[in-house]
Design goal:
With about 675 residues, the protein is of the alpha+beta class. It is built from 14 helices and 36 strands. The longest helix is centred in the middle third of the chain and has 15 residues. Keywords: Acyltransferase, Calcium, Cell membrane, Chromosome, Cytoplasm, Extracellular matrix, GTP-binding, Hydrolase, Membrane, Metal-binding, Mitochondrion, Nucleotide-binding, Nucleus, Protease, Secreted, Transferase.
Amino acid sequence: MAEELVLERCDLELEANGRDHHTADLCRERLVVRRGQPFWLTLHFEGRNYEASVDSLTFCAVTGPDPSEEAGTKALFRLSDATEEGAWAAVAADQRDSTLSLHLSTPANAPVGHYRLSLEASTGYQGSSFMLGQFTLLFNSWCPADAVYLDSDEERQEYVLTQQGFIYQGSAKFIKNIPWNFGQFEEGILDICLMLLDVNPKFLRNAGRDCSRRSSPVYVGRVVSGMVNCNDDQGVLLGRWDNNYADGISPMSWIGSVDILRRWKRDGCQRVKYGQCWVFAAVACTVLRCLGIPTRVVTNYNSAHDQNSNLLIEYFRNEFGEIQSDKSEMIWNFHCWVESWMTRPDLQPGYEGWQALDPTPQEKSEGTYCCGPVPVRAIKEGDLSTKYDAPFVFAEVNADVVDWIRQDDGSLHKSINHSLVVGLKISTKCVGRDDREDITHSYKYPEGSPEEREAFTRANHLNKLVNKEETGVAMRIRVGEGMNRGCDFDVFAHITNSTPEEHTGRLLLCARTVSYNGILGPECGTKDLLSLSLEPYSEKSIPLRILYEKYCDCLTESNLIKVRGLLIEPAANSYLLAERDIYLENPEIKIRILGEPKQNRKLVAEISLQNPLTVALSGCTFTVEGAGLIEEQKTVDIPDPVEAGEEVKVRVDLLPLYVGRHKLVVNFESDRLKAVKGFRNVIVGPS
């Protein structure tokens, strides 16, 4: 009778598997593989090797605290001659001396997560169990059978593997790219992402069912959308929008997700202070990319927050055009969410592809502050019955705006405002390039097209189907050059009279600082022309000077000023409104790389900024991040004030870990100049 088969050790072949599964960054000390694709194992036996005629090898893979075959969280499978499509399998690939090399296959719909792998070896009546090790299973956008399959390698590179990118802010007429370090493969981040799944309320209620449902990217995406905010769970971020961030970190100061996720773990899953929409979206993007779901951050300009689902945002203003009452329905200057790529077997065909997920806590969905996933295609088609949360996302890009002027006698008069269109310039980073891609067309048909009317009819969006009234007098706000923070500058009310009659009216111009979510600050410029006459078929440009001394103390970190013009024609009882949000440009952060970037060779970054203000800056700090270039965030404090016009310069040591293209991301803070961002691409060669 053959002697018992004894396993000496199991080699998880980290290097080969990491290379084959695009997980090399994660496989330095553990095995991380993608589902639906075989991975290597080598078994080393003591004494004799495996003999197919006398030995039977049975493998067991389990995930979660309550594994079961029925739930798909436990798999028993024997060493066999061939793999079986869609099943767990082990196939011998090579045998020599006392080693046996195996190919282990996982189903393309297996739950993702942390697995324990064991072996039962039996020879005749004898049997022994061996723990082979642990591995983490991720979604696989390289596998055609996986629900997250993407057939473009460039897109997989961008939406799964790229660790840095841009988030778009500013305003629709001045789009500003903010660099961000997603860092999904940085030290400890995968464990934090898995921990986030393990503290979600659905797991705490029924761990077995939750782990089983992790086979679905729809389910995982919805869980992540809820867990990035902390409104009803042990989620990552606390949102705050009132400009009082002294007991935490201002949302504008973050430059990456890694620091946020590490703080959350370090403090025992205590919420991190503070987030706003782009921070929620960026952290969700990090988590979803880390788990293997292709994801991108998108920005919608002039984004509506429609609470009562009537697809209408109504502003009530006094006779000077100032918004009255503390209304929670607002138009946000911009709003960020994420899109993730997946099939939707739970919906009708045609709704696979990009799905919108919004982790910013705005409205409850099925009792939880989360939103999505909803197919972007359903939004475009006006199909509002589609899971999940289609009406809310549809309103964000399509709501209509009505402005009511309350006159002295209390009566309401509708004003004409063609300057505010909801859902403009929907933006994301281009694949493989540092440019912006406009994806508005994926959410909306061209304005005025028959397809747009069909979508609005389907969505019962009656306001949009009414033709807009046109008048012979039009007004828009124009801007000049040099709108830099620290400067005085002019804006203009440009008024056109295209009628054969003369028009006379009163023009009120007002500039106020504003947060990106539409909350207005103090006035920083006004003009009141009691009698303005417009000749037939004429144009006029009325300037309004905006002074640094007026806006310097009340400009928020969004760097935005809202300019409003109201033209009142008493004779025609007409109110014409025009608004524009102006973004003030921060000074440039310059980054020089000293030395040739080579893998595992020290490098220095020289970072500088010139104070553009007429006063000194104190409390100056540079913060630097960059996946693959620097192991953890570095902060450099400047002890002395930086005088007006003076340049401040610091040096930071880097250690590039990987060959390839990386981004160094920098944030500058001071008492009077906050959240100034900069970046530099660094191409690292082999050492």
